[in-house]
Amino acid sequence: MTFPHPKTLPLWQKWNTKQLQKKYFEGPREFRRGFQLDAMSDDERKLPHFDQAVKAGRGLTVEKLLTIEAQTTLFMGVDPGGSSRPGTALFILGLNSGSRIPLYIKYGQFGPRQFAEAVVNTYLHWSPYVNWLPVVVYIENNSLQESYLELVRLLPGAPVIPLVGCETGRNKSDPTIGIEGLDTEFIQGNWTIPAGEFYDHDIGCTCDWCRWYSEVLNYPNYPTSDGLMAMWFAWRALRKGDANQGKAMSSGDIKMGLPEKQKNIELGVDNALESWDI
Questions:
Q1: What angle do CA 41, 46, 47 make, to 5 degrees?
Q2: pLDDT of 153-200, one tens digit each?
Q3: By three-state DSSP, how is residue 12 classified?
Q4: Domain CATH number, residue 83
Q5: Are residues 121 and 190 located together in one domain of the fold?
Q6: For residue 167, what are the contacts with CB-CB under 8 A and spacing of at least 6?
Q7: Which neighbouring-strand residues pair with 102?
Q8: Is there a contact between 137 and 123 (Cβ–Cβ < 8 Å)?
Q9: Sign of torsion, CA 180 186 190 195?
């Protein structure tokens, strides 16, 4: 992989050669699109119709959608990452009258305890405002990631969350249920995107909504795909039909786990959350 000579690049004042090299090696194709004006064709994108859903939602925000869509069922997806980079993504997807509505995206770099706390906090995110809870939480659990499910279950004082381990493999590339299957729904107009959360942000914005937008728009050529994966897990939960007979759970349905002291004694996890090697 060879970095282009600086003389061939349209340099911005705030970008020096070292910064440009870093961007290039993070993702050469995304670099050519963003810095050399080499636009991606629809053939290069696996989700080419995502942008039409985004453009249709330019005037929408999460707050506005929560007001309009009062009977929305929530699904949550989690893509765990290690503690070396902000590669953990947590996503909440709403379902109302057949429309899929992204309502929350968060990225983070977490240690074991912080990861478990982030899952719990995201699960409870909307309950103080609209009295809603996700009916199910899909967490990727391939091999070592099975540990992440246990981390959430062992968190002292946490509510009992409906966790489902979500395996990935060949299903990821399946044209119907895989990531590319999302594009069929974009074509059909099944998604309502709160594009007002990010559409007018500056180029290069690194907020969570902008990162998610870039990951989905440029898949598979963007350097990361964590938020897209979390969205796909939430979408898989929605498609699976784990909708509690179609009824949204309320905050009154929260079941608390064992008290902290009792839980530590019964499960022998006094230091598990601090010492778990993941």
A1: 95
A2: 889 888 999 999 988 888 898 888 999 999 999 999 999 999 999 999
A3: coil
A4: 3.30.420
A5: yes
A6: 140, 141, 142
A7: 93
A8: yes
A9: positive
Q: Provide the angle, in degrees to the nearest 10, between the axes of the packed helices 146-154 and 112-123.
A: 70
Whether residues 58 and 176 share a domain: the answer is: yes
- The structure's pTM equals 0.77
Alpha helices in the chain (DSSP H): 17-26, 28-35, 50-56, 62-68, 112-123, 127-130, 146-154, 181-188, 208-217, 226-240, 260-267, 272-275
Q: What is the layout of strands, in order, in the sheet containing 163-166? A: 99-108, 88-96, 73-79, 134-140, 163-166
What is the span of the domain harbouring residue 15? 1-39
Structure tokens at 143: 């091999």
Residue 145: what are its φ and ψ, rounded to 5°? Answer: -70, -10
User: Over the stretch 68-115, which tens digit does the pLDDT of each residue have?
Assistant: 655 789 999 999 987 677 789 999 999 988 999 999 999 999 988 999
Give CA separation, 278 vs 18, 72, 74, 169, 275, in Å: 32, 35, 29, 21, 9
Determine, yes or no, domain membership for 72. yes
Alpha carbon of 14 to those of 11, 125, 204: distances in Å? 8, 37, 12
